[in-house]
Amino acid sequence: MTLPFARRLDHVETSAIRELFKLLGKPGIISFAGGFPDSALFDVEGLQQASRQALTENPGAALQYGATEGHEPLRAQLAAFMQAKGATHVTPQDLIVTTGSQQALDLIGKTLVDPGDPVLVEGPTFLATIQCFRLYGARVLTVPIDGEGVQVDRLEAALVAHRPKFIYLIPSFGNPSGALVPLARRLRILELAVQYRTLVVEDDPYGDLHFDQPAPPSLLALTAQVPGSREWLVYCGSLSKVLSPGLRVGWMVGPQALLAKATMCKQFSDAHTSTFAQATAAAYLASGRMPARLDEVRRVYARRASTMVEALRRELGEAIAFTAPQGGLFVWARLTGAGGRLADAGELARRAIEQGVAFVPGAPFFAADPDPASLRLSFATADEDKIREGVARLARALR
Amino acid sequence: MTLPFARRLDHVETSAIRELFKLLGKPGIISFAGGFPDSALFDVEGLQQASRQALTENPGAALQYGATEGHEPLRAQLAAFMQAKGATHVTPQDLIVTTGSQQALDLIGKTLVDPGDPVLVEGPTFLATIQCFRLYGARVLTVPIDGEGVQVDRLEAALVAHRPKFIYLIPSFGNPSGALVPLARRLRILELAVQYRTLVVEDDPYGDLHFDQPAPPSLLALTAQVPGSREWLVYCGSLSKVLSPGLRVGWMVGPQALLAKATMCKQFSDAHTSTFAQATAAAYLASGRMPARLDEVRRVYARRASTMVEALRRELGEAIAFTAPQGGLFVWARLTGAGGRLADAGELARRAIEQGVAFVPGAPFFAADPDPASLRLSFATADEDKIREGVARLARALR
Questions:
Q1: pLDDT surpassing 60 at residue A1
Q2: Concatenated DSSP letters for B316-381?
């Protein structure tokens, strides 16, 4: 028996990365492979209190069906959260709550992409985005990055050449690049959006995870400085990296016309995001615990990042090239092949597993023209001793 | 500025029913319009305990990313729940958790429907299903019902005529029909699925809400009696009507090949269903409180249904025709026009609002050939005095 699957599935696959993850069960393995935050940093006590409050103060609302646009107390908290980060124009009506920011991407694909439509993404970019847009028939085209994120001259050339439906970017500590787009480049991106009348989707799960100094304002906040740009900007936010991925609470800020269509589609996607999770998130944000928690999370990740950077330089030297991250969860690197050593990150990943350390090769993160020498190392979930030991194993695998 | 929305949105609209709901804010209105359970029947204490347990026993798992297929303890509980209802073959690996059963429908559309594909539904059926499948380009075709649900001779004729991608049915106390498909007809549906090699999607949110006697076994359970039928049956379950819609916990049972594709699509839809909600639901089901809660919910709804049925007969007499429901949340009725009275349910809905009572006209529930005399009355959320008063107001509106 063969089920009559839809043609849209023909060119989309469960990611190669997921196959790798099956190997992570091996005992004693040190993993730099994940893309998730450290569970040990979750504010369990704060979330226990918030969940108790949600189920005590208004259990009917937390357990009943809710508005597709989102639970009003949460929309109010998220608007305040965005305002505090410089997007001072954002009101509760300017955002809808989504089931993680992954659903925001899905709703963007559903509302905007016709089969064959070109969509621009960074090369490399978040793997699940590429697949998500391809499921709606998008032709996903790549604009290369450098150490400061997307290259804006190449972006403009691609806008001219392809007239894409939209541009998808992760300007702050992107997955997998870890790159931070500087202020001037951000402003230029907004100018291009206005000039070419093209939507920019800003995915921002990591922007709050800066180390020494805050990231420049989000594209969303910067729309105030670029006339006409607000109507071309869609912002996707998430509590996954700063509070808890398990809540599945994200949000989307955008032009009202887009929010209305996305809300209509969401009705038929999952009716609404868990009101139980939304009410808990709202109570948590209202509790005022987030700023201190963010400080703690940043401090821990900054220390782990610097430990990994130092260990990579010490142990792998010229065999690896990378820009030290200023925030986020990842070191994005290239094997240089210096001294005749391995320059194939896929092969290194296999040898590394044998040595007891895991990471993700970079090639799958490219929608086109994969760089086989690239790799992504997450410093988020291993402690500093483990990071040093894991990098030492990596060095052994490279010998 | 006009955003370049995808063509798939062209023929889908936010439902007419949602517009009606905006009128429900009017003070003192008695609503028979909702499609939701009574918040007063939620087991708040049980869910408080379950949520506390989830965040105490293994907070890391409840708050971290989880498997797209679902949280293992919940899959185990849901398999046991299905087994206890006669689907004895269902193992945890035979189901995936979805963000409400609405997401199961969305994943079915995404994995199976190519633009132009015919899909069969009952006329009338659940409104959000029609729209959900249309978003993937389905041509939604209607098979009429009678007091015992879908008419199987008409179903067979439609299978022959249209060779649909699948058939979507709500065999137990369907929304909006409230109809219960008897055993013989259920078996016939499964035989047709095998004979015409066509998937049947069984949506079953109401099956547990029976009054005097249990519904016949689900199509899923009955696959054991019809050789070859198991591979053609997809079952969508939900905790929304029996525990809490706000959790957004549903599940899908189906052939492994379909579950694999649906899981892949779900990765890009929302990554996974809230692990926080899943862990809470798992702890609740493990607590053993569900059977007593179900007894209570059935008892209350049965009383309200019988109150509504008696009031309708007393107050509206021959002006209205309906089959008394044996479970679920709804009375589905037709205005007969007897004695020259109004037979247009849309017009009655407007007059009823003026009299202080709301219900939903039936026409929007038909994918084709709407019956303008039909209407849906929910007895789920008003107490018995309110039901009697609401029906009296309805009678005044009809005069």
A1: no
A2: HGGGEEEPPPSBSSEEEEEE--GGG----HHHHHHHHHHHTEE-EESGGG-SSS--TTEEEEE-SS
Nearest CB to A47; choose among B37, B40, B55: B55
Determine the Cα–Cα distance for residues A357 and A23; give it in Å rounded to an integer. 11
For the range A284-289, what are the long-range contacts, defined as Cβ-Cβ under 8 Å and sequence gap of 24 or more? A284/A43, A284/A46, A284/A47, A284/A50, A284/A243, A285/A74, A285/A77, A285/A78, A285/A80, A285/A81, A286/A73, A286/A77, A287/A46, A287/A49, A287/A50, A289/A43, A289/A46
The answer to whether residue A17 scores a pLDDT higher than 90 is: no
Sign of CA dihedral B226, B230, B232, B238: positive
Task: Output the DSSP codes for A261-327.
Answer: HHHHHHHHHTSSS-HHHHHHHHHHHHHT-HHHHHHHHHHHHHHHHHHHHHHHHHHHGGGEEEPPPSB
Measure in Å the smallest separation between the Cα of A123 and chain B Cα atoms: 19
pLDDT digits (tens, 9 = 90+) for A175-227: 999 999 999 999 999 999 999 999 999 999 999 999 999 999 999 999 999 99
Rounded CA-CA distance A317/A311 in Å is: 9
> Nearest to residue B169, comparing CAs of B207, B139, B196?
B207
Residue B131 CA to residue A80 CA, distance in Å, equals 34
Q: Please check the confidence at residue A125 and state whether its pLDDT lies above 60.
A: yes
- For residue B181, the distance in angstroms to the closest alpha carbon of chain A comes to 26
State the pLDDT at residue B21.
67
Please name the residue ranges forming H helices in chain A: 16-21, 44-57, 59-63, 72-84, 100-112, 127-135, 152-162, 183-195, 219-222, 256-269, 275-287, 290-316, 345-355, 384-398
pLDDT score of B45 more than 90? yes
- Comparing CB atoms, the residue among B39, B48, B131 nearest residue A64 is B39
Angle subtended at Cα A368 by Cα A362 and Cα A372, rounded to the nearest 5 degrees:
35
Confidence band for B382, pLDDT divided at 50, 70 and 90: very high
Taking the CA of residue B7 and the nearest CA in chain A, the distance in Å comes to 6
| Among A234, A209, A279, CA closest to A105 | A234
For the cut 70, the answer to whether the pLDDT of residue B15 exceeds it is no
pLDDT digits (tens, 9 = 90+) for B138-164: 999 999 999 999 999 999 999 999 999
**Residue B7 CB coordination number (10 Å):** 10
pTM of the model: 0.97
pLDDT at A160 exceeding the cut of 80: yes
B231 interface with A at CB cutoff 8 Å: yes
Phi (first) and psi of residue A113, to 5 degrees: -95, 120
Distance from CA of A343 to the nearest CA of B (A): 31
Hey, how many other C-beta atoms are within 10 angstroms of the C-beta on A318? 11
Count Cβ atoms within 10 A of the Cβ of residue A227 and give its class: 0-12 exposed, 13-18 middle, 19 or more buried. Answer: exposed
Is A247 in contact with B280 (Cβ distance < 8 A)? no
pLDDT at A11: 80
**Taking a contact as any Cβ pair under 8 Å apart, which residues of chain B between 186 and 225 contact chain A?**
197, 199
Q: Is A216 helix (H, G, I), strand (E, B) or coil?
A: coil
Predicted pLDDT of residue A399 = 86
Cβ–Cβ gap B102/A4 under 8 Å:
no
B381 class by beta-carbon count within 10 Å (0-12 exposed, 13-18 middle, 19+ buried): buried
A228 in reach of chain B (CB within 8 A): no
Name the pLDDT band for A2 (thresholds 50, 70, 90): confident
Residue A52's closest CA among B102, B252, B50? Answer: B50
- pLDDT band with cut points at 50, 70 and 90 for residue B26: confident
Residues of A in contact with B112 (CB under 8 A): 3-6
Sign for the pseudo-dihedral over CA of A270, A275, A280, A283: positive
